Amino acid sequence: MWKYLLKRSLLMIPTLLGVAVVIFFLIRIIPGDVVELRMSGDTGSVSEEILKSERARFGLDKPVWQQFVTWIAGVARLDFGTSMWTGAPIWDEIKLRFALSMQVAVMATLIAVSLAIPLGVIAALKQDSWIDYAVRIFSIAGLATPSFWLGIVFILSLLIIFKWLPPMVYTPFWVDPWQNIQQLIWPALAVGYRYSAVATRMTRSAMLEVLREDYIRTARAKGLWQKLVLWRHALKNAMLPVMTVVGIEFAFLLGGLVVTEQVFNLNGLGLLFVQAVAHRDYTLIQALVMLVAGFTILVNFAMDVMYGWLDPRIRYR
Amino acid sequence: MHRRIAHVVTLATLILAVAVAPVAAQQDKPRSGGELVFVVPSQPPSYDAHQEETFGVIHPMAPHYGTLLRVDPFEKTGTKPVGDLAESWTISKDGLTYTFKLRKGVKFHDGAELTSKDAKASYDKIIFPPAGLKSSRKATYASVEAVEAPDPSTVRFRLKWPESSFLLNLASPWNWIYRAETLAKDIRWYEKNVNGTGPFTFVEHVKGSHWVGKKNANYWDKGKPYLDGYRALFISASAPQVAAIRGERAFIQFRGFSPPERDQLVNALGPKITVQQSGWDCVLMVAMHHDKKPFSDKRVRRALTLALDRYEGSKNLSRITIVRDVGGVQVPGTPYATPPAELEKLAGYGKDINAARAEAKKLLKEAGVPDGFAFTFKNRGIPHPYEPIGVWLIDQWRQIGLNVKQEFVEASAYHPMLKRGDFEVAMDFACGFIVEPDLDLFRFVSTSDANYGKHKDAVIDELYVKQARAADPEERKKILRQFEKRLLDEEAHIMYTLWWNRIIPHNSRVKGWTITPSHYLNNQLDTVWLSE
Q: Torsions phi, psi of A46, nearest 5?
């Protein structure tokens, strides 16, 4: 087990290195230059002398390979440099947004899981009954409804019916829990609903498959309690594909909620990503991609470890 | 009986009027207290206004700073300079020396006293920046020979030539006065820090989220500011901006909303919303590349402007986007704007559109441009007002037999495209911070970086200089009309579409703020207060 964990941890390094190479060179292919954009402003007029001096300040006058080596050496020390747009340290740009995006992702996951697992199990147990149809309608509607649209519906309903709008400024949970929940519950619900729809359908189909397995029939034939059969034998095994879906969605939520963040005016990583690309803020884009890639790899790793706990037949080598 | 009822009603009305009058008067009297929450649709890249060009710097940060002069915060054209840190000033008879007396007892937020050294150091940074340091508006002070501080309360500007716009240009909202001592230690200090003499002190900036300021108890103008503080919320998308005002999470957004957004707010909030509207010193223009055929031919350029029915366009486009006024080279309603009778004489501004289009077709034929001639019009990839104006232009040009393809250029790649001259015909735009011909028209001088169409016109260059040095406003107006005729009619170097329309629907509790034609002005917030 420990050997496997070590091997997997070491395997993360070449993956991240690959991501680093791709993003570093890809962002430089896109037309537009951060210094020119930053300095030209709205009038578009800036002298060549200023452009040269700014490029030198950010090290953009050096050969690309040299820029890459400098950057990757910094990344190895967890130093991502400073934003080329604002001049602030990258971590200052990211930390608050990371906390917000992470909280929305966690809340949406909790909402999704707490809806999906009971609904998926009930639908599977009551297959082709009205309950199953109701759950299927609920989940297909979730799949068909974009989160941002649901977000707009929430905002308009709150405004029109209750003449109330969620707070516009993010307050960390530890500063004011009530204010924090008032702001983040709505995006978490909007995102969590779509997320739960995917997980509900996966839970239902996995449960249906598991319930037809020989070991379930054997357990029932032994006279085990229905509850015990469901919880100990069926659900635990059905959870494998569900966990995969939950893991992938959770990793996506960290940086992928661009439109939903706009709708709720959330100062999250998704919006920061879009702004960074629009500004061609190389250092910030690189840091964000590395952060999301690292997070996705970690979540996948955690899922793989969890498979072994859920299914003892899986052995780590 | 009816007369009796009428008397009773009149008496009741009078009693009510007498009773309400003190309340109304009280309502008009500035009241202290409260926090003004407002929306800012952009964000500050750095904190140094001398370098920056976005209102994302001005709106949240102007309340921290003082300027030598400012525009009168209650004057609607935003063209009347009044003293801010300067108490009084004199201009020498030859117009070459401007001497300013500074107010006494003005303090920076760190407690240091303001002296003329601070004003000199700030203006030296703006006009004569050290190598490698950007100063966005350096070119507009080309006439300045030196800035001097002969004594602690006097600042003197010596000019190389007289310039009629100079005083108003010193009221620029960008020219914040910084501490000389700080600049001497680190010229880039103000890029990341705040220390001014303004009515509000800095509290916090949470990147991407908000900016907070609180009342400066040592502000030189005793009794002001009225507000206890302010909070600027950074919201980039327009729907949440409208929602913030509608949900009363914010009182105002100082840049502007579109007509449908205004209507939505008015319908939802009724008397809780007050709408202020003004012409706006922003305009979309069409740049035609003078080195690319057939746009090198002035007949073709003239035909393109003749095809536009600006008056009909104004009626329809003003309902859906932020444009309204038909005008010449200055915002309609401001001191140097073109009188309507003169405007109608310019190509493309006449009221008989059929005659104009017939002339346009004739000109195209004379220039050898075949019917159905196709070209690409490059537009900026921003919805308002670029997209509707682009669609309108294409429709208008089709009416004279041109076949135009519109290509949207991503906002980040737009200016580099214009600078490279990688276009035949493209949307150009200008947004001024004060309505002043010198500031607005410099871009049309042959050597200007913003002359994207690359015209070379010695007459335009000469007329620009002449109007800038004309001391008599009437004389200046005459020269400006010649400049305009040459630019838009005879040579048709560029074409103006419609001037923007600034619409500010704000919470009716916000008082003491007056709209001007520039979203860069009137953001010190010292005169603003909140009613009960």
A: -155, 145
